[in-house]
Amino acid sequence: MKALVVVAHGSRRKSSNDEVVQVTEALSQKLPEGFDMVNTGFLELAQPLIPESIQTCIESGATEVHVLPYFLSAGRHVVEDVPAEIDIVAKKYPHVKIKMLTYVGGLPGMQDLMLSALD
Amino acid sequence: MKALVVVAHGSRRKSSNDEVVQVTEALSQKLPEGFDMVNTGFLELAQPLIPESIQTCIESGATEVHVLPYFLSAGRHVVEDVPAEIDIVAKKYPHVKIKMLTYVGGLPGMQDLMLSALD
């Protein structure tokens, strides 16, 4: 059973965190075959934190967790902080495959998404 | 002549700012008919700032400027700060149409972009 965990920075503004949760929950209707759950995790300032979010999926039966960084640039959060948070859970569950995906801003489709704003 | 100006927050990390400039410049090859230029502007911490970036396009002949906020959530920057920066230029050039587009995280295609990370 595979899980998708969308991880964002987290904000003091509740509405910004809610927005990430909403976009993530909407994905649950569109997941590819083999994915049975989605969850959201935050680096700071909001709950659940990243390790807790991944752990919830594992406790619900996920044997493979794909972590999508909801960030626009490959700054310190993407390069260092998110991997470090993932590592906390990976050490606790060595039998679970935890894979970090390309951050949103680095996906090849980003340019087309930006151009879609002009429609 | 239309221009697309991608506006981002700006970072102390030069590489993050460069990444925004790169993704914007790559768009120049794919612009829809009628668009002849792209530029990047920053809210803070990097150059050019948003008003200056829009002004450069107008001085180069743009009669219509579409401003795309390169932000993931509709926080204060998107709701208040970017419109205020746009307003500075709009007042100086009342004959130029300056239109703020939907921020990247609010575009309908965002979900499909996120799912593309799973491919």
Could you describe the 3D structure shown?
2 copies of one chain form a homodimer. Helix content of chain A is 40%, strand content 21%. By secondary structure, chain A is an alpha/beta fold. In chain A, helix 2 (50-59) runs parallel beside helix 3 (76-92). The longest helix of chain A is centred in the C-terminal third of the chain and has 17 residues, at 76-92. Chain A binds chain B through residues 4, 6, 8, 11, 13, 15-16, 19-20, 23, 26-27, 30-32, 35, 66, 68, 70-76, 101-102, 104-105, 107-118, and chain B through 4, 6, 8, 11, 13, 15-16, 19-20, 23, 26-27, 30-32, 35, 66, 68, 70-76, 101-102, 104-105, 107-118.
What's the SSE blueprint?
2 copies of one chain form a homodimer.
Chain A: E1 2-8, H1 14-27, E2 35-42, H2 50-59, E3 64-69, H3 76-92, E4 97-100, H4 110-116
Parallel strand pairs in A: 1-2, 1-3, 3-4
Helix pairs in contact in A: 2-3
Quick rundown:
Helix content of chain A is 40%, strand content 21%. Chain A has helices at 14-27, 50-59, 76-92, 110-116, and strands at residues 2-8, 35-42, 64-69, 97-100.
Number of strands of chain A: 4
Structural class given helices, strands, pairing of chain A? Answer: alpha/beta
Percent helix among the residues of chain A?
A: 40-55%
Q: What is the number of helical segments of chain A per DSSP (H or I, 4+ residues)?
A: 4
Q: Distance between termini of chain A?
A: 38 Å
What is Rg of chain A?
Answer: 14 Å
Strand order of the largest sheet of chain A: 2-1-3-4
Strand content of chain A: 15-25%
Find the biggest chain interface: A-B, 41 and 41 residues
- Describe the sheet with the most strands of chain A: 4 strands, parallel
